[in-house]
């Protein structure tokens, strides 16, 4: 017998059929739309409108901290972004250290060594298309680097002679510039690898000053500036900055260096600086394939060496690294305007006692650091001048050194009036426990390990060390602004020309960290010791001398005095090593220039490039 459908069932069946019809209609409409697109019959549409561009091939490197500024004149830290976005009149070949033409195609030195004439390349342009001319050169040196209201370290290395006079820079025509020197100045050429900056983009900021005479330039092009506003002349331009995370650089289409008219340099169109604030994390990111290179810290060497083949990378090594690693005590005896000492007077007395510094130097087991922290991949360091420099003085030629000798440390301390209690703790002549704070930048595992060992080494001669790694930007603020620190563990970059260190050794230099001056707010009662002034004077003498043998004698003396007085206690020089992806071609690794000193000519293998 036939079943009778209820009204409710009838409505449900109708609604189900209706919904199915609607679905079928929608599918048909979608198919029709896709067909219309495929046939190109929709107005204004083509396949190009729906094409997905492949990702831009890029190099990605890790940096332990974010950039502090996008203003090259104000930069005080390394690494920084400026080697990627700017060039100078000349540049240093990172492979052999030779000076080579850059924005200037040629130069000529007068017979009396008092004038250098530079001829710029024809047709130079800034990244925004504006002409790069002699006006930019004169503006950079006369209105920025020579401007005492602008706090730039570049000014220190440009000062000539005992007077510290700066070169006069004159425009001859749009492509010709003269540097006029008050007296012969042998480092002049190597001093002119510094960045040339765009007049048309920055002149208004330089000329605009507040009631106190501070140029607006001093707050121009900070890291909050939109990247597209930063005008560049180097191989790359700033594309994007994600605060605290990454900086992206894109190829500068107006970069002057081109070898193939059919293909722009740099060959690799994008470069990324990824902020990875921990060396272990950088290693993890490299092994995961997210970074193109990683500096090979000694503790990573064995692991990475085993992974070279299957990881498709190569470890490059080129002897001792440039630069220095050291500890230094705050020798500044000054006070703030209200009379507050920068350093506790009790501790300042210790730090300014030479035998105390010598005792600390003899108390550091640097060979143990090489064996344990550096896994044998390092050398003892004794000098502020890089081993690669022709002006380096080795110990066998008279450079003083400080071997590990705790007993010698105790003798020196006893001679300076220090005493020990029954438990071996050290006290000064007034009964004060000898204890100080040591800081370094957090995230650098090697420095953190060094700091821990220094704490242990010095405890064996009765000194208590309170070791604290801190954020790098905070550390820089202590060293340059507040001057509120006791001892720090850091390093300086190195190079071939010793005069580059004049900003460290000039008594008014902006990196004269062990006895730093400060103008704003001013400090009172700063004292400059005789040996401190002697080193500064020797650097001036070296800059006047053109005879290489005589320059060697002068800079040898600076190294001897430095080691005799120990404003910096040098530690260990690690081997220069980097792991680099095998898909990157034309790598010419060197301790002098690093992994990517020839960044403009690096390329990807053909499989990647296609």
Description of the molecule:
With 610 residues, this protein is of the alpha+beta class. It is built from 17 helices and 23 strands. Helix 3 (134-145) runs parallel beside helix 5, helix 9 (354-362) runs antiparallel to helix 11 and helix 15 (530-544) runs antiparallel to helix 16. Mean pLDDT is 89; it is low at 1-19 and 28-45.
Keywords:
18% strand; alpha+beta; 17 helices; 610 residues; 5-stranded mixed β-sheet; disordered N terminus; single chain
How would you describe the shape?
A: globular
Number of DSSP E strands:
23
Question: How would you classify the quaternary structure?
Answer: single chain
Percentage of β-strand residues = 15-25%
Most strands sheet: 5 strands, mixed
Instruction: Please tally the helical runs, counting DSSP H or I stretches of 4 or more residues.
Output: 17
How much helical structure, as a percent, in the residues?
Answer: 25-40%
| Class from secondary-structure proportions | alpha+beta
Mean pLDDT: 89
Distance between the termini: 75 Å
Describe the strand arrangement of the main beta sheet, using strand numbers. 18-17-19-13-20
